[in-house]
User: What shape does this take?
Amino acid sequence: MSNLYQTGTKSYNSRKSKVYAKGRLCKDESCNKTLSIYNRKEYCYTHTPISYGRNRGWKDPTLDL
Assistant: This one.
């Protein structure tokens, strides 16, 4: 009977998460929420300005001034 399971060690080649400064506060003046060390933005979720990603196509960077 053959062995159905492969033996050995697993090696995970994933990158570490980028970490930002500890103790940062939301940039909104009326908010005192501390941001996560993994949040790269300057605002908390509630005060982040709305932005929409592009689903498809190419966007000319010179027109986005």
User: Anything to note?
Assistant: The CA atoms of residues 29 and 64 lie 28 Å apart. The chain has no helices and no strands. The chain has a mean pLDDT of 83.
